[in-house]
Amino acid sequence: MHTNGSLMNWLAFTLLLSAACAPSALAPKPAPAEVSRPATSGAVATTPAATPKPAAEQPKYGGVLTRAIERDPDSLDLQRESGSPSSTTMFNVYQGLVRFHPIQHEKIMPELAESWDVSADGKTYTFKFFKDIKWHDGKPLTVEDVKYSLDRMQNPKAFNTISPRGQGLLAAMDKAEVAGDTIKITTKYPSASFLNNIATGWVAIAPKAILEAKGDMRRDTVGTGPFKMKQFNPNSSVELEKNRNYHIKGLPYLDGIQFYTIKDAATRFAALRTGKIKMTFWTSGGLSPTEAEMVRRDMADRITVYDHDALTRATLTFNLKRSPWSDLRVRKAVDLAIDRQAAIKVNGGRGHIGSIYGPLWGIKESDLAKLPGYRQPKDADLAEAKRLMAQAGYPNGLKTTLLVGSKQEQAVLAKNELAKIGIDAELLMVDSPIRYDMMERRAFDLDSFRWTDNTGDPDETLFTFYYTGGSRNYASFSNKEVDELIDKQARTMDPGARRAIVDDIEKRIMEELSILIFFWDVAQTGAWNEVKNFRPGTGFHQWSKLDQVWLEK
Prior knowledge:
Blueprint: E1 2-3, H1 7-20, H2 32-35, E2 64-69, H3 84-90, E3 98-100, E4 108-110, E5 113-118, E6 124-129, H4 143-154, H5 166-169, E7 173-179, E8 182-187, H6 194-198, H7 208-214, E9 227-233, E10 237-242, E11 256-261, H8 265-274, H9 289-298, E12 303-318, H10 328-337, H11 340-346, H12 365-368, H13 379-391, E13 398-404, H14 408-419, E14 423-429, H15 432-440, E15 446-452, H16 458-466, H17 480-490, H18 495-512, E16 515-528, E17 531-532, E18 550-551
Parallel strand pairs: 2-11, 13-14, 13-15
Antiparallel strand pairs: 1-5, 3-4, 5-6, 6-8, 7-8, 9-10, 10-11, 12-15, 12-16, 17-18
Helix pairs in contact: 10-13, 16-17, 17-18
């Protein structure tokens, strides 16, 4: 099987996308089962301004796009970091083998790799690269650079580093090899999610020479992307400038991007309203529901607010290693008692009820709304919850503790909802490192937190939260049959057959209930109308690279 990502198609794409976003400009032309994601189910519609631009609207060169981040990047090394300030700034400096299409987000297209072939058994990917790609210091990109970065992310301990995102995203990779002027990646099994995973900005390629000499890129920024580091002013700004030697001719349109470090939310919002910043970012100072409403009411002629699924779920995790949470009856009682719609109201009315998967794969909201625990009104659910508590031996309720994450209002709601069935939950507010340590040691009862996916593919959710030994399986959920099905769906390349397995897994996990989902969040991003060729999508990897964006004035 051959997946075509030819240079001709790429050049057509870069010339036509901004003018018309025409499907014929798409590169590569993928095999649907391997480089297309499933159609969005229950996604929030974007505003009319997010539709493709008319042909008469030609891109313009010049200008600096201004944005805000809530704190300085933890470091500048994307292979080491997982925080949003690092990703928001550095995704435009570093590149991976492939990327998501900036408008048609379900498609995957070339980035460093001009084209790729996939073997008949679905286990070997051979990537051919664009010619004359140079690092920002002028040195040429080599296939050895690519292999070194992939090896470093796959096995960080061997390189005396960490890889909080890349290692998991490369979980299916067996090895990367240099084959002439190509890179050959062999996977452990045919992986339905492999291209999605490496299309995220976290699978970033960095120069081997600097990594070997310095051990990391935390204070060096030498990428191949459309923008390069101009200046990093701690507690002030991160300034990127146009890479005039970018290997895709004609891009980027912007002269640069400037990220102001603005820690206070009110000050960030004021910066948007006054035009100091032209675009927000949902994980780095995005709009609150109240702010979004104010913009729509007072500044709709100047600023567009985009609603889009964030792939972030608000959760309540049970520690199945501890009583009473080892008792399914008690967990089901809590599931019945929680009012999901009330949780969405506490979130400013933003979000939608959902199952264990995000909007791309999960049960439709309209179907969920008919099920116990999700339906309205709550009278029947509360009565059944109290019956289950009595049956489990807690007719008068029980006392427990609840770890609190960054969203305190979510934990307060959980406490109040639990009280309706006699559960007295003491809120434990601890710093993030202590909280993670308690989770790792399973030294907790309940945990309230929000988790964000990278791609929305079931692999990420299943292998992370529900697979025996999963990196964030803090509930200690373990089911041999579910593990086998998780392995099976990951190896199933046919979308329809995979969907059936994924649906079966979902039903089994929902029956055993190790993590309760309050809702899936909806993000709100604001951008001045002069920012063109910009369209938020599900998650943020699909639209975080801004080489196609241009300013009208």
